Every structure is written in C-alpha cells, then in structure tokens.
C-alpha cells in the first residue's frame, strides 16, 4: 500500500516536503515511511491519504485487487 501512496503523491504533484507540511511533520517522516524504514499505523495512513487527496478506502481496495 505504501507503493500506492507514493504513486498517488507523485500523481498529485506533491513533493515529500509539501506532504510533510500538510501533515505537520518534516520531510524525513515522509521519506522514512516511503522507503519502508518506518511503518504507518492506520490513523497515519488515513491522514497521509487525505493529505494527498485520495480516499484511503480506495487505496486499500486497489491494494487488495493487486495483491500488494
């Protein structure tokens, strides 16, 4: 699902720095979860999805359909 978040961020034209600002976090927070160095809990996943402008449930459905 992280791959889908990264792709959604890039598709939206949002940088890691901008996403970090939207979340009230630093760019390193975004970098770490995108690289798999840090896991997101469910609440963080929802917050990141919404900050990117995508529906978290749609990402989950897409992940299930793609067996990610």
Please report the number of helical segments. 5
Shape: globular
Helix content range: over 70%
Pattern of helices and strands: HHHHH
Beta-strand level of the residues, as a percent range? under 5%
The name of the CATH superfamily reads lambda repressor-like DNA-binding domains
Structural class assignment: mainly alpha
Tell me the domain tally.
Answer: 1
Overall average residue pLDDT: 95
Query: CATH class, anyone?
Result: Mainly Alpha
Question: What's the architecture in CATH terms?
Answer: Orthogonal Bundle
Q: In terms of per-residue confidence, which ranges show pLDDT below 50 for 5 or more consecutive residues?
A: none
Largest sheet: none
Annotation, overall tally of beta strands: 0
Our Rg estimate from Cα atoms comes to 11 Å
Q: Topology of this structure?
A:
Blueprint: H1 2-11, H2 16-23, H3 27-34, H4 42-52, H5 56-66
Helix pairs in contact: 2-3
Structure, described:
By secondary structure, the chain is an all-alpha fold. It has a single domain (2-66), classed as 434 Repressor (Amino-terminal Domain). The protein has helices at residues 2-11, 16-23, 27-34, 42-52, 56-66. It starts with a helix and ends with a helix.
């Amino acid at each position: 699902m992280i791959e889908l978040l990264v792709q959604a961020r890039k598709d939206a034209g949002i940088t890691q720095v901008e996403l970090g600002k939207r979340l009230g976090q630093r760019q390193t927070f975004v970098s770490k979860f995108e690289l798999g160095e840090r896991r997101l809990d469910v609440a963080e996943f929802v917050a990141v999805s919404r900050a990117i402008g995508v529906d978290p449930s749609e990402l989950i459905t897409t992940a299930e359909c793609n067996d990610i």
